[in-house]
Specification:
Helix 2 packs across helix 3, helix 3 packs parallel to helix 10 and helix 7 packs parallel to helix 8. The chain is globular, with a radius of gyration of 21 Å. The longest helix is centred in the first third of the chain and has 26 residues. By secondary structure, the protein is of the alpha/beta class. The strands form 2 sheets. The protein has a 6-stranded parallel beta sheet, with helices on both faces. The protein has a two-stranded antiparallel sheet with strand order 5-6. The chain is built from 15 helices and 8 strands.
């Protein structure tokens, strides 16, 4: 076996998808023993990350429905994929997200205020990427994959040992930018891991109508190492990401992780998923809820009691309250500023349009 090729996961199922914990919370101890030191401390920490991330997401959704945010893209159901992967990185490893990585962002220390500012229209990007080693959200599909490869090439030229990880979805994988990024990463041996959260849907287009073969196999065709993992199993995600990041850090070829998960809500608050998928599909995936799976594991192993769960629930409510306060403290966006900020300097034509708009608004007073 080539040193740049990872061994087949010991816990891969017949379909080739890595899983360590099943939906009933049962841990495959034999498989986990060769991949991950599963401790109560580790599992409790990941559970807390997921619960807080889910509560924040729910509160942001409510704020959008109350008119406090212009738009929100939910991460409900994808908490394990994000918490498991981000916690496998070092603090100095660079992350290039898309627009749904709220759990990962919270794990990096980004505040609710910073996360919500862009969605309120108060800023174009409201946190410092250098402070968190976490780039601002990208709303254009797959563009962040090319940015990530470019950054990773710089890391290699600097002879640094950090690794770049970029998140994207199954829909973004159909974009030309993603194919270019995979190719450039392989050709330049960039220290990067591509992490695809395959949630089954690109807005209303199912994965079955996007491509004929698994994304992990496509990545191998570009010359990358690739693994497929149960994206609702936080321990499998954590183990797979840690192993791949360590191998890339040691000089191995770039890698891709395809995490099979499910978007339990709509694509965004402007989407109605009931128009294109049935309730039975949602019910099947609700039985694979990533948060409940870890709760069952913690309970069965005696690694957490009701006091612990109550404490985490209380922390989640505190985060929700903080989210409401910080959101409403953000400045109200002004459409007049859109005219001023379209170009570096406001042109005469834009000035006339802005003044005409402001005169129109004043007519209502």
């Amino acid at each position: 076996m080539s040193p740049n090729t990872a061994a087949a996961p010991a816990a891969a199922r017949a379909d080739g998808v890595l899983r360590l914990v099943d939906p009933a919370g049962e841990l495959d101890e034999r498989a986990a023993a060769g991949m991950l030191d599963v401790t109560g401390e580790l599992v409790r920490g990941l559970y807390r990350d997921m619960v807080l991330g889910r509560r924040f997401d729910q509160e942001a959704y409510s704020l959008q429905r109350q008119g406090e945010l212009g738009l929100w893209l939910m991460s409900l159901g994808q908490e394990a994929a994000q918490a498991g992967s981000i916690r496998a990185l070092r603090a100095d490893d660079r992350v290039f997200p898309s627009y749904r990585e709220h759990v990962a962002a919270l794990c990096r220390g980004i505040s609710p205020r910073e996360l919500l500012s862009q969605w309120r229209g108060a800023s174009h990007g409201s946190w410092d990427p250098e402070r968190y080693h976490f780039h601002i959200y990208s709303l254009v599909l797959a563009t962040q994959t090319l940015h990530a490869v470019g950054y990773a090439m710089g890391v290699r030229y600097d002879a640094a040992d950090s690794v770049v990880l970029t998140y994207f979805g199954d829909g973004a994988s159909s974009q030309g930018d993603a194919s270019e990024a995979l190719n450039w990463a392989a050709v330049t041996s960039a220290p990067i891991v591509f992490f695809c959260q395959n949630n089954g849907w690109a807005i209303s287009t199912p994965a079955s109508k996007q491509y004929a073969g698994p994304l992990s196999e496509r990545a191998k065709g570009f010359g990358l190492d690739a693994v497929s993992v149960d994206g609702n199993d936080v321990l499998a995600v954590h183990a797979a990401t840690r192993a791949m990041v360590e191998r890339v850090r040691a000089g191995g070829v770039p890698g891709l992780i395809e995490a099979h998960t499910y978007r339990m809500s709509g694509h965004s608050t402007s989407d109605d998923p009931k128009r294109y998928r049935d309730h039975a599909e949602l019910a099947r995936w609700e039985a694979h809820d990533p948060v409940e799976r870890v709760r069952l594991l913690l309970t069965a192993r005696g690694w957490a009691d009701e006091d612990y769960f109550a404490t985490v629930a209380s922390e989640a409510e505190e985060l929700a309250g903080r989210t409401r306060v910080e959101c409403r403290a953000l400045p109200e966006p002004s459409l007049s500023d859109t005219f001023r900020n379209t170009l570096c300097e406001e042109t005469e034509a834009l000035r006339r349009e802005r003044e005409g708009f402001e005169t129109y608004l004043e007519s209502f007073l």
